[in-house]
Design a protein that fits this description.
Layout (H helix, E strand, L loop, with lengths): L5 E4 L3 H12 L4 E5 L10 E3 L5 E3 L6 E3 L2 H7 L5 E3 L4 E5 L2 E5 L3 H8 L5 H11 L9 H9 L1 H16 L9 H4 L16 E5 L3 H8 L5 E5 L3 H4 L7 E4 L3 H4 L9 E11 L10 E3 L8 E4 L1 H4 L6 E9 L6 E2 L3 H16 L3 E3 L11 H19 L1
Parallel strand pairs: 1-2, 1-11, 2-10, 7-13, 11-17
Antiparallel strand pairs: 3-4, 5-9, 6-9, 7-8, 12-15, 12-16, 13-14, 14-15
Helix pairs in contact: 1-13, 5-6
Length: about 375
């Protein structure tokens, strides 16, 4: 390997975007990916029945950033798509995020927007300061909706009670008093027409980019002698867990094809905050818009062990991360980029924006 080559560890959004920006600027890049495919957790592929499925759970693209949307648009045609989610509560399916129809359906009322606002105001349990995820929900909608739609779902997802999680977890889900039932309200909401994997393959298709799949960089790092390394994996793994393991939540996916029907459920995703072991079911053809025979779904089962998906947002994990970040700042010729390397929850567009920014800084440093 030439010593001038930049090594990028990981071919997900953070790694692939950084690789392409650097290659477009004339730098020779080698991407090392542990899995046998690009795209990280956004990887998708046709199942045995021809339905494009997301192997690691649904990935819905949304952003308010024209820069991010246009950058990715270099590598895909966008198909407009607005995601909708329902929650199974007491045998009823109610919209998520909470909106006017959720309030009326849950309480058996027929309120207008003004009446719904007044009703929620009467249910609120004011919290000051708002520190935890429990505080967020009780402060906005009160205890009944909290217990029915949030508490157990959060426990299943994170393995912790909402009172033990940062406010940021539930603050990401708004409360509306209109009938807007879209899960996101971002300016740009779309799906890559040919899928995420096709987008990643085009992004990595550059004469200055080489990709090695099925290679565990950390197990073989001694054979690489790059000018610079961009690392997108778990930050604690880079340091051999020397300060202890950072907590992550993992997921197990149960894919299933249902023949003889073109619709399994009334929305693309249905949440299950009850006692089921899984948290949600997603039906892919409602996302892809494919006209095919049968339908394919995935159930998601959160787990404590396995491939790291989500950094756990609480005070203890943040404190440990700060110690690892201090070690990272002392590393020479290494840039840490992405959800796992920065130990923070990034949406896809945020991961892209962070990678664009990091690549810009790195190009200046290498100039």
């Amino acid at each position: 390997m030439p010593e001038t080559e930049i090594v990028i560890v990981g071919a997900g959004f953070s790694g692939a975007v950084t690789a392409r920006v650097l290659a477009d600027a004339g730098h020779r890049v080698r991407v090392i990916e542990k899995r046998g495919h690009p795209g990280g957790n956004a990887f998708d592929e046709p199942d045995a029945h021809g339905i494009l499925v997301h192997r690691y759970g649904p990935h819905l693209f949304h952003t308010n950033s024209a820069r991010v949307f246009d950058y990715l648009g270099r590598f895909t045609v966008w198909r407009p798509y607005e995601h909708r989610v329902l929650s199974e509560v007491g045998g009823r399916l109610l919209p998520v995020p909470i909106n006017l129809d959720t309030i009326n359906g849950f309480f058996g009322l027929n309120l207008c927007e003004e009446g719904a606002a007044a009703h929620l105001a009467g249910l609120r349990e004011p919290r000051d300061p708002v520190r935890t995820s429990e505080d967020v929900v009780l402060n906005s909608v009160g205890r009944a909706l909290y217990e029915a739609m949030f508490r157990n779902y959060t426990r299943k997802q994170w393995g912790l009670d909402p009172s033990d999680l940062d406010a940021s977890v539930t603050a990401r889900v708004p409360v509306r008093i209109s009938r807007d039932d879209r899960y996101f309200t971002d300016r740009f909401q779309a799906m890559p027409a040919d899928g995420y994997t096709a987008l990643f393959r085009r992004m990595l298709d550059h004469e200055l980019i080489a990709v090695d799949y099925a290679v565990d960089f950390l197990a073989e790092r001694d054979r690489f002698k790059p000018l610079h390394t961009v690392y997108t994996g778990p930050i604690d793994a880079w340091f051999g867990h020397a300060l202890g393991r950072l907590p992550y939540r993992s997921l197990r996916f149960e894919h299933e094809h249902i023949a003889g029907t073109d619709s399994f459920q009334p929305a693309a995703t249905v949440n299950y905050p009850g006692e089921q072991a899984f948290t949600r079911i997603t039906e892919f053809r409602k996302i892809t818009g494919q006209q095919v025979t049968g339908t394919s779904i995935v159930r998601e089962y959160p787990e404590a062990d396995g491939e790291p998906y989500y950094p756990v947002p609480n005070q203890a994990s943040r404190a440990l991360y700060r110690r690892y970040r201090a070690l990272a700042k002392a590393e020479r010729d290494v840039t840490f980029v992405g959800r796992l390397a920065e130990y923070r929850y990034y949406n896809m567009d945020q991961a892209v924006a962070s990678a664009l920014k990091a690549a810009g800084r790195l190009m200046k440093a290498l100039a």
